[in-house]
Write a structure and sequence with these properties.
By secondary structure, the protein is α/β, with parallel strands linked by helices. The chain has helices at residues 19-28, 46-51, 53-61, 89-105, 124-142, 162-172, 180-185, 190-193, 224-233, 257-276; strands at residues 6-10, 33-36, 66-71, 110-113, 148-151, 175-179, 200-205, 239-242. It has one domain: Alpha-Beta Barrel (TIM Barrel), CATH 3.20.20. It contains ten helices and eight strands. It has an eight-stranded parallel barrel. α1 links the parallel β1 (6-10) and β2. The longest helix has 20 residues, at 257-276. It is globular and about 45 Å long.
Length: 277
């Protein structure tokens, strides 16, 4: 992507809305792109993506808005066929070829997956070694496609610190779906996460603080104008996806998603207008 960073809206922010309805909310808010995934009323058909990816791509194009990112899970939940689980590489690589065919067919610039968890019998170091092996194989697959493959380091993954993420990048060259909230929740300062900005292929935005993956915009510790400047200075020109959610994961049930989405939109636009002045 060239030019300014641009806003997107995650479909899973609005669990009761269909894909078309989320796209309509985005247009009403002046947000011209959405992120798609496999959750709630807006869920894509995973079976179709894997069996007939070009048909799935054509179906997605009828939504009539840009798609900034697709979030794919190889198995069910965070631990199903995760990248740190031995014995999953061949099946995940086969699936990824279909996923990236789908992404290219639908003109989706980035696909994100999760780095993996500490599986039964593993240490964190064991999980890291297995994930590195998986990522190398998956990146070999991704070399044949336009869409950029990236991972989102997250709470409950084996890769929960900036240092562990840097190791994955050093060992594999993987790009990031960067979400500062996962690090802030675990107590890392924003400046400790900033060096990861140069590796971002996609970005998620929501307010957070230590112990809370999501909180109200006015009650969190993340400095978003500083974050936007860091990303810009690192050369990032991709999507900034507003990802306030209403779900049981990490107790993220208590914010008004629409109010928080508008607050984040306005924060970015105020920063952007100042940058353009």
């Amino acid at each position: 992507m060239t030019g300014n960073m641009r806003l997107s809206l995650s479909c899973w922010s609005f669990p009761a809305l269909t894909l078309e309805e989320v796209a309509g909310v985005g247009r009403a808010l002046g947000i011209g792109a959405i992120d798609v995934g496999l959750f709630y009323a807006s869920a894509l058909d995973k079976a179709e993506i894997l069996s007939d990816p070009l048909a799935a791509a054509e179906r997605l194009k009828t939504v009539g808005t840009d798609i900034a990112n697709y979030y794919h899970l190889f198995g069910e939940g965070l631990d199903g066929r995760n990248l740190a689980l031995p014995g999953t590489i061949d099946a995940n690589a086969r699936d990824l070829a279909s996923v990236l065919t789908f992404a290219d067919g639908a003109d989706i610039p980035t696909v994100f997956i999760l780095p993996g968890v500490v599986n039964p019998g593993q240490s964190r170091a064991d999980a890291a070694r297995a994930s590195i092996e998986s990522l190398r194989a998956l990146l070999d697959v991704a070399n044949d496609y336009r869409a950029t493959l990236c991972i989102e380091p997250h709470v409950h993954s084996f890769s929960e610190s900036p240092a562990l993420v840097e190791r994955l990048i050093d060992e594999t060259g993987i790009r990031l779906a960067l979400d500062y909230s996962h690090f802030a929740c675990l107590g890392y300062r924003q400046e400790e996460v900033d060096p990861l900005a140069k590796h971002a292929a996609h970005v998620h935005l929501r307010q957070a603080r230590m112990g809370a993956l999501q909180t109200k915009f006015a009650e969190g510790t993340l400095n978003f104008p500083a974050m936007f400047g860091t990303l810009r200075d690192a050369g990032y020109r991709g999507a900034l996806t507003i990802e306030n959610v209403h779900q049981g994961y990490m107790n993220t049930l208590f914010e008004d998603v629409m109010t928080e989405t508008v607050a984040m939109r306005d924060c970015y636009l105020n920063w952007l207008n100042g940058d353009a002045a």
